[in-house]
Amino acid sequence: MSAMKLGALGLMIAAAGMMASTMPAIAKSQRLTVTVEGVANGKAIPADYAFCVPAAQGHVGLGPNKSPKISWTAGPAKTQSYAIIAVDTDVPSVATDVNKEGKTISSKLKRVKFYHWVLVDIPASVTSLAAGADSDGVTSGGKPPGPGKVGVRGLNNYTDWFASDEKMKGNYAGYDGPCPPWNDTRRHHYHFTVYALDVPSLGLSGTFRADDVAKAMKRHMLAKGQVVGVYALNPVVAAKIKG
Q1: Are 220 and 202 in contact (CB under 8 A)?
Q2: Which domain does 26 fall in, by range?
Q3: CATH of the domain at 97
Q4: How many structural domains does the chain have?
Q5: DSSP annotation of 93
Q6: Structural domain contains residue 243
Q7: Which end of the chain has less neighbouring CB within 10 Å, N or C?
Q8: Residue 77 is inside which H or E element, if any?
C-alpha cells in the first residue's frame, strides 16, 4: 500500500474515531486476571499484532495483524460466556494533520476512541485464545461479522476507516490491530478487556458494534479484567516505549 494511500487512510481513521462508540459505565464487579502474551501494562505491543508497522519508505506498511494470545482467569461460578473488547483511547479528534509530511499531531489534541476487537459469546469453557485465533494477516474487505472459530465477531472501526476506499472497504469484524498516525507525538494506549457474563449468548447478530455489546451485557457482567499496551509509529515516540 502506498504512502499516499496510507496518508489518506490516516485522515479517515481520525474521522472514524470521532464516530466510534463509547463504552458506557458499568456496575462494579469482580476482577479477572488477563494476560496478553508479549504485552505488559504500559509496555510496547509487539509488531506481530499490528495492522501497520514502520517502513523504510512511505513511513509505514501493512503488518502481520495477528490477534494476540490472550488468556484470563476463570470467572465466577455463574459465568456462562466471555466477551473481549480492545480499544485505542488516543485517536486524534481532528484529522487535518494526520500523516501529513512536515506536520505533527500535538499530544495535547483531544482524543477519541477506536475499537480494534469485538468478540462475544466465547464459551465459558474457554479461558484462552491462541495467537492468530481471530486474525492472521490483513484481510482486504475485512473479516465477516458473525460466528468465528471461537465466539461471535462484531464490527471494529476499520469498517469506518476504509469506507471510502474502493479496494479495501467492507465490514471489518473481530480483531484488527494498531495503526496510529506516523506523525503523532502521543503514544497510543490499547485496552484489552475481558468480561465474564452470566448468559451463554448476548443475542447479537449482524453488524453489531462495541456499543451494542455494552448495552447487551450491562446487567449480565459478573467480572472483568484488562491489560493496557502501547504502540506508536512515530519513530521518536516509539523509541521511548519499552517492550
Answers
A1: yes
A2: 3-238
A3: 3.90.280.10
A4: 1
A5: S
A6: no
A7: C
A8: none
